[in-house]
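Q: I'm a student working through a structural biology exercise. My instructor gave each of us a protein and asked us to get a predicted structure, then write a short paragraph describing it. Mine is Anti-sigma factor. I'm not confident about reading structure output yet, so if you can add a plain explanation after the tokens, that would really help. Here is the sequence I was given:
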Amino acid sequence: MNYNNQTLIDMLAAEYVLGTLRGPARQRFQTLIMQSTHIREATWQWEQHLNEINRQITPVEPNDAVWQTISQRLGFDEKPANETSRHVIKSGLSRLWPVLTGVATAASLLLAVLLWRESQIPVAPGPVQHVAVVKGEDASSYWLIEVHPRDITVRAGSSFQGLADKDYELWAVATNEPNPVSLGLLPKQGELVLAKNTRFDQLDIQMLAVSEEPLGGSPSGLPTRVLYTAELDRL
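A: Happy to help. First, here is the predicted structure for Anti-sigma factor. I'll explain a few features afterward.
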């Protein structure tokens, strides 16, 4: 199986996030996530978009007519003899209903995201040299960071909720620098392209850090309050 095929990666990542990728196939994909930054990035993108779609779906409780129609199509008695038999059928169908709706939802979400990816994902400004995912304390993905030859592309995750009166600044922590080096302010939502620090390629970066700052960024040139750290992986 060619895991360099972008279409295949998208399909597997979408199934993984939806939970429909199971058994040995899911275990293999989890191994690939650990080994490949490209696959981690694809999985992160699907997670963000599917979570956004999921929040827009309003749960609907099927009425009695729907239960009766389903019971008839599945071969149950068309006219239950009494309320007890009606309860038995409805109880059985209530266990089946999440499976049916889950399959339908998974299929519709997969189609929606395939169409979205084709039209919405921006083209990266040059090859990706490094990638990092900044996660919160609950392991939610807050920012996806991609380093290009001249720019740094940052995408804010849908789970990140920034404070209106604060900014969030990205820093490089390097062994050959006594203090962290600012890389710019992070977006609270959406995507932002940062100009790459002219010293970036000369830094021996050990990790990235995100600090909470007053609006406009650090007033001292150093992190005010470090919130998160992340590894910077080379591609």
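A: Here are two points you could use in your paragraph. The helical segments are 6-18, 23-35, 37-56, 64-73, 83-120. DSSP finds five helices and nine strands in the chain. It's a good idea to check both against the output above yourself.
Q: Great, thank you!
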